[in-house]
Amino acid sequence: MKKQDSNAKVKIIPLGGMEQIGMNITAFECEDSIIIVDCGLAFPTDDMLGIDLVIPDVSYLKQNIDKVKGFVITHGHEDHIGALPYILRDINVPVYGTKLTIALIENKLKEHNLLKNTKRKVIKHGQSVNLGCFRIEFIKTNHSIADASALAIFSPAGVILHTGDFKIDYTPVFGEPADLERFAELGKKGVLA
Ligand SMILES: [Zn+2]
Question: If you measure from the C-alpha of residue 5 to the centroid of ligand 1, how many angstroms do you get, rounded to a whole number?
């Protein structure tokens, strides 16, 4: 990752999920690097007869394929991982997530015969991954699925906090509570968005 730079700009490009329910996929671009957070499916609305699945439009990523460094996945729900097997055919870059999230993705890749051709990496909460000019830290959150993460995305332009889906639960049914301390720490240092 590069040092903070007051002239640096980071673009946040939602590729789905804003108007439709379900399709969570957002690209973050800075200089020569693009990372993609989540890669979900949407289910068709009633007026979309004969359509089974709605897959995000990733033509922007295809046009900029040289910049695309990887998928960073917050958790294993369908609306966050469901489109991966379709999108990876065109955008074949490594996939990063926590243990359960990667396991769920691997099930899908197996179904689609993509396991051999897809690089995956398990990241633990508190760990970071460097992708181009970004560093992405996985922070533990609680959600209705285990192993969910928020992401602190460090870029030359500043820190962006991507919360994923979560609820604050001081007494979660499974696992440890969310790492609220880390959120507070990041908040103190200053977050861009
Ligand atoms: Zn979810």
Answer: 34
Within a domain: 106: yes
CA of 72 to the centre of ligand 1 (A): 15
**Domain that residue 23 falls in:** 11-189
Read off the pTM. Answer: 0.89
Among 20, 60, 59, CA closest to 40: 20
> Mean pLDDT, consecutive 10-residue segments, the chain of 193 residues?
72 75 88 95 77 84 97 94 95 97 97 96 97 96 90 93 70 68 83 77
* 161 bridge partner residues: 152
Query: Distance from the CA of 74 to the center of ligand 1, in angstroms?
Result: 9
Two structure tokens written together for 62: 């295809």
Looking at the structure of the chain, the number of domains it has is 1
Answer yes or no: is 182 within a domain.
yes
What separation in Å is there between the alpha carbon of 192 and the centre of ligand 1? 24
* 142 falls within a domain: yes
CATH code of 107's domain = 3.60.15.10
